[in-house]
Design brief:
This protein has 12 helices and 19 strands. It is elongated, with a radius of gyration of 25 Å. It is 29% helix and 29% strand. The protein has helices spanning 104-111, 133-138, 155-164, 170-183, 199-209, 229-246, 257-263, 281-289, 305-312, 337-347, 362-370, 396-400; strands at residues 2-3, 11-16, 23-28, 33-37, 44-48, 64-75, 78-89, 93-97, 119-124, 127-128, 140-143, 217-221, 249-254, 266-271, 274-279, 293-300, 317-322, 327-333, 352-358. By secondary structure, the chain is of the alpha+beta class.
């Protein structure tokens, strides 16, 4: 067993590897969390140097930080979460994508031990969410849809209050708070009351509040809901940094398609409590486009009916749609379809002003799978600008269906 993070050991504790049962000692300062590696099987985990019992560090033997099997949550006769299964690799950003009311937050509450599932099982960092709920809470952080802070306390006071809930020693906690405030560039606002902050500043503090205990797994439940575009971009960048710089596994719930596309390595699309699709963003988009299908938007200043007829006669063209007097959308198969389309138009005397390659969006995937718009259930207090995110705005979904 090797000690990876402490230079001045003050106490020693024994570590029992949950994978192979090997026991060895490790050292560090009281209250310090360190990464330990089992010299017998190579498994890794984190330990907190506190208490008197032999600590056991939770991690999965197959590299999964989270494993969910046939999880179900009933409210009377209503299945809010309906027999879902998925796993999340350590260090991955995993997205749960779907409209409000789809069951995303109910899943998060169950995985964070705030609500017991009606059936099924799940492990977080190797610990069962029902049988070992207290162990689960030692390894996670939660940023819920509602901000959890006290308005009349300062940023520093809020962070210290929540740090004390984990029994962190004062010296270690104060250093952790300083590090976190620096991480989100809020040092000069540390001693200002939360009530004086903008919504974006409050959310930055809200996010690092969930990092005080140095969690291995962070749950972000709609972290950008209600934020202006600038604050939304800041929280997205903060999410990425937490994952890349700290190696934190992140579970992100959102109904904003572009957010999931930008951040997530793998996505589960939720509809009516069920996972209707589970894959990488790129592979999910292939559900709409097919592996060799491409959509083009073409602007032609002198568009004529015979040009449309010529395109329709091409074997490579799968579909053709005219959006306005100068714009057409062409979906075609084959790697050389672009050259074939452009050559055909030029032979017909078309004056081509612009050609744009249109990639399917995750919203198109959602429409393809569910037959309804992903944000139709968004509550009235959600900002209107969310509908305009993405490179093609309101026209993109129309273009490639």
């Amino acid at each position: 067993m090797t000690e990876n993070t402490t230079d001045r050991p003050q106490i020693t504790k024994k570590f029992k590897c949950p994978t192979c049962g090997n026991i060895a000692t490790y050292a560090g300062a009281p209250g310090e969390r360190i990464i330990v590696t089992c010299t017998s099987c190579g498994s890794k985990g984190r330990a907190t140097l506190s208490g008197t019992t032999t600590p056991t560090i939770g991690f999965s033997t197959n590299g999964n930080a989270i494993e969910v099997s046939h999880l179900k949550k009933m409210f009377g006769d209503f299945a809010a979460v309906d027999d879902i299964s998925f796993s999340v690799k350590k260090g991955e950003i995993f997205g749960l994508l779907g409209p409000n009311g789809a069951g995303k937050s109910t899943i998060i509450r169950a995985l964070c031990t705030l609500s017991r599932p009606s059936a099924g099982s799940a492990t977080i960092a190797g610990f069962d969410i029902v049988k070992e709920d207290s162990k689960v809470r030692e390894h996670i952080g939660l940023v819920s849809e509602k901000m959890i802070m006290y308005e009349q306390l300062t940023a520093r006071e809020n962070l210290k209050l929540f740090g004390k809930l984990y029994n962190l020693p004062n010296a270690a906690l104060n250093k952790r708070i300083d590090d976190l405030l620096g991480f989100v560039r809020m040092e000069k606002w540390a001693d200002h009351k939360i009530s004086t902050f903008s919504t974006g500043m409050k959310q930055r503090i809200n996010v690092i509040r969930a990092l005080v205990n140095e969690p291995e797994i962070l749950f972000l439940d709609e972290p950008t809901l209600g934020l202006d575009p600038q604050s939304t971009a800041e929280i997205r960048e903060l999410t990425r940094r937490i994952n890349v710089e700290n190696g934190t596994t992140i579970i992100l719930t959102t109904h904003i398609m572009v957010e999931a596309d930008i951040l997530c390595k793998k996505i589960g699309i939720i509809d009516h409590g069920k996972i209707v699709a589970l894959d990488t963003p790129a592979n999910l988009k292939k559900l709409v486009s097919g592996t060799d299908s491409t959509a083009f938007e073409i602007e032609i200043s002198n568009l004529e009916p015979h040009m449309m007829s010529s395109l329709q006669s091409l074997t490579a063209v799968k579909s053709l749609h005219q959006e306005d007097p100068t714009h057409i959308i062409v979906r075609a198969n084959g790697n050389d379809s672009f050259d074939v389309i452009v050559d055909t138009l030029r032979k017909d005397g078309a004056k081509i002003l612009m050609v744009k390659n249109l990639e399917p969006s995750l919203e198109d995937v959602f429409l393809h799978l569910t037959g309804r718009e992903a944000r139709e259930k968004v509550t009235e207090n959600a900002p209107s600008q969310m509908g305009g995110h993405g490179p093609h705005g309101r026209r993109k979904a129309k273009r490639i269906r």
